[in-house]
Please model this.
Amino acid sequence: MPAPLFPLFIDLRDRRVLVVGGGAVARRKIDALLASGARVVVGAPALEPSVATLVAEGRIEHIAGRFDPNWLNDAWLVVAATDNPIINRAVCTAAEARRVWANVVDDASLSSVQVPSRVERGPLQVAISSGGGAPMLARHLRERLERELDESLGDLAGLLDRERERIRQRFPEIGARRRFFDALLAGPVPSHLRRGDHGAAQAAFDAALATDASPARGSVALVGAGPGDPGLLTLRGLRVLNEADVILHDRLVSDEVLALARRDADRIEVGKQVGGDHDATQARIHALLVEHARAGKRVVRLKGGDPFVFGRGGEELDVLHAHGIDFEVVPGITAAVACAAYAGVPLTHREHAQSVRFVTALGRDGSDPVDWPALARERQTLAFYMGVSGLAHLRDQLIAHGRAPGTPFALVENGTRADQRVVTGTLDTLPEAAARHAVKAPALLILGEVAASAEALHWFGPQPLRLDSPARREPTMAEAA
Ligand code: SAH
Model:
């Protein structure tokens, strides 16, 4: 993959732009350049009538003749719009030598700048580029945006532009201003504009501006980020992430999900390190939540999966409640539900599994708080949230308490992520199968009759691995032990 293009919006007002070529293609480019206020000079031996008219009207300048590199003198930008590839190339070479940006119409490979597909709503522009590699895809997306973006967005952008100074004076502080915008956009102004009622829109705007902005009141949203695939974040979670001032996130939260958050939000990783002091980490999280919310920030506490499933989310709410801080909770898709789906394992089954249990806290610090006799009962699916080191103990206990050694399992590593792997087999050889394929955290174990369907219903990522599948990755000594 080549490095991506750097997007820019250029102010061409009163800047000299050379267009080489005087035909229909050149004409389209000239129109677009004139609309941006550029001072257009067209260089060509001959001009088609409509271009000649522009020259006659004094709206553009004409240099007659074959391309000469000196035409580039004083130009900020050149557009090569001839149907002659040799001339287009000569234009680019000369432009490169003079450090003038060059665009060749319909030839991304020669161009040092490319013109994006765009959607315009008044002063609001959405520009789309595929880097020249997939122009049809960019066009498809453009058509979609054309459908989705309401025409009145242009009026809205215009209104905000006109009122910019008043808004700034009313709310000099950026946080207050942002809250004003959020409230404004959620309020009646956009719908008045959609109906074309500019008077009502202006009145609603004036009313919103006059409303006393209450002093910044911090809050915390406890948000479930889901298991990793960003498509599994909820819309509510996405909106809250878009409004966040500060994001406190676990290590388990994927980069793809974090990439969806507001760009200028402060991101603080508060993940628990393996072998670290979890209580100290938790105390620090509590302190950070309170500190930032008290400072008037909109804090998002972003957790892997669902915040209330083995996430200590309840403890965090207790702290917020005790400090009188506003909070909300946005659920996420928990690992068991997500991994089951992405491994083709229905968690319940009319005959084999009438209940599902989400289980954790296996063998940490040597303690074993698990009710093994209850777990060993048949006709239920078990979903274990745990590290892979406790698997032998788990197998031994379940079999000792009566669960059939032949009970199927599906062990899902990095569930829903691009590097998801699934190991399947039966309970009696679970730890061996996991060791053979060097399964690492995060991994979720699904145990029960339903796990057998992972073979047939597998649809995401590579085929499930079995004890006798060739090991693709050498286990380290520690893992093998
Ligand atoms: N609140 C989280 C769970 C946190 S406990 C949730 O609702 O999902 C951490 C455990 O979750 C890990 O040890 C692992 O067993 C499981 N887990 C989380 N994300 C996972 C993923 N993408 N794939 C497999 N297991 C995952």
User: Anything to note?
Assistant: Residues 142 and 148 are 10 Å apart (CA to CA). The longest helix spans residues 278-294. The domain at 16-115 is CATH 3.40.50.720 (Rossmann fold).
